[in-house]
Fold this sequence. Notes:
The complex is a heterodimer of chains A (142) and B (154). With 142 residues, chain A is an all-alpha fold. Chain A has helices at 3-27, 33-41, 49-61, 63-66, 81-98, 102-111, 115-138. In chain A, 56% of the residues are buried. At the A-B interface, α1, α2, α3, α4 and α5 of A face α2, α3, α4, α5 and α6 of B.
Amino acid sequence: MIPQDWIWGTVGGLMIGAAAGLYLLVNGRILGASGILGGLVDGTGRDSMVERLAFLFGTLAVPPLLVPLYDKVDTRITSNPVVIIAAGLLVGIGTRLANGCTSGHGVCGISRLAPRGIAATALYLFAGAVSVLLFRQILGVI
Amino acid sequence: MTGFRLSGHAGPREIVAFATGAIFGSGLLVSGMIDTRKVQGWLDFFGDWDPTLAFVLGGAVLPMVFVWRIAERRRVSVLGTPIPSRTPPKLDRALVIGSLMFGVGWGLAGLCPGPALASFAIGGWGGALFFLAMVSGMVMAPTVAGWLSSRTTS
């Protein structure tokens, strides 16, 4: 990691926090990516459908406009479709069961000192570290 | 027809939601968190550990600490929606199992829901396949939750 990564990491993090703050103070909503999307997928968020769609549209459509500012933007995602499908299913089921992901439980929960948010974050960080240890360091599949 | 209905609903709430998504997604791009290898590097405590994500999380939590203070004092948002109340500090089975499942998937691909959305247009077929699998998982989640709760009661 180069020191510049810390600076851009902090700048990007402040932007994420500013977005979460705007959504909470103006709309009275928690910025949770899995909750906003999941409520559309399973129909539980029908009353706020347009608000959710507007959020998703901003998240999907605006970042690509910044890509020309960089030399190269690459997600460097694995090319193994089995790994991708397994990971996607686990993230989809897991975040809905837990009622939150890195943004809802992590950013919004930790900053409120919410016990469920702190516990969820500790658990998914732990599981993520075990996952990388197992699949990268021991089995070598990722 | 749907388009007409949707445009009829676009008010301040939807404009703020769009702006929120735009800033959120751009923040994810700027921070480097759409790079799956950087995320996996943060989780790789026994390999070449990359602390960038700690700066991202710290940067995001910091303004929110102050925002929560204001929000809880106001109790109602600018557009009149009540500020979400605190959920009881109950660590149920769904929270524990769900968070563990999410963590395993997060480590496997290096993507969580936010970056999966923000990088959708630039993530190629791999990003699209992840998104499809994640949405499928979200469709399956209520069924899985049903299994979990039926086990608890029996």
